[in-house]
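<amino_acid_chain>
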Amino acid sequence: MKAMVFHGPGQQAWEEVPDPTLQEATDAIVKVETTTICGTDLHILKGDVPTVEPGRILGHEGVGVVTEVGEGVSKIKVGDRVIISCISKCMSCDNCHRGLTSHCETLGGIGWIFGHLIDGTQAEYVRVPFADNGLIPLPEGVSAEQGTMLSDILPTGFEIGVQYGAVQEGDTVAVVGVGPVGLAAVMTAASTGAGRIIAVDGNKFRLEEAREFGATDTIEAGPEALEQIKELTGGKGVDVAIEAVGIPATFELCLDSIRPGGRVANAGVHGVPVSFPIERDWINNITITTGLVNATTTPQLLEDIEGGRIAPEKFVTHRFTFDQWDEAYDTFSRAADEHALKVIVTNEG
């Protein structure tokens, strides 16, 4: 088969590799139908994730058809069309029982293994460990493109942004950074019943898109952003600020934007330390949360799609085929210039 293989920082190639095989009784093999590129893949190519070794097949999202199952697989069968969850999980260890599947102990304390510690989904076929837990049947009426958004991006925005931020009906929410994760938070905050959603970003295209995803107000990032948030909230601040960038300035803006008793849900991936002014905020009864997606909300999000409450196909701005991987990566790496949110890459073979 062919796959997108990482060969070290700045080097990847669509090339022939051995077909995956069953290694454990709980494995399945899936023929990948549709997949995408994540910002994490770009971080890997920059050399930011040293645990990814040269020779690794990239990718951790997708929809496909099951072609083979191990003797220990009971829920999934050959021929099933499935969503491939970005998080693998045994559902037997303490962390999995606690709902922290992203820290599955059986897998060494990390559930994100596709395209990281084992070969991933940017390939014609992929081996899926613990297939009964990591594959979700795709209902009729839900498209492959919609399903692919449920592998990672939508659960991340919903779980780490909206759920960890404890967004309640009627809340005022600021989403700082409306790239794909931020837009997922906007979309699911709206479906949760937030009364006002303020999108903050430095990219005008993303701000325009944020309104399509459910934002009621948009603010261009800059020195006046905090003042504008306060004006929109009558000087009180927001109930919840969702950080979806991962830099000190946006984390600081979120802290400054919340009202007493407010909550900051950090969904951004940070590469350098941030400052927390505890001498100011110890008295303010605030909550700060962080996390790696557990991807346990996919069934709920599927129901929301079927019920018309969310429309994840809105994320897809560009489409490619498996013979256009270089073009797909080039487009996604220049997302701001190309007005790209998520790219879909389809196996037409």
Summary: The CA atoms of residues 51 and 161 lie 26 Å apart. DSSP finds 13 helices and 15 strands in the chain. The chain has a mean pLDDT of 97.
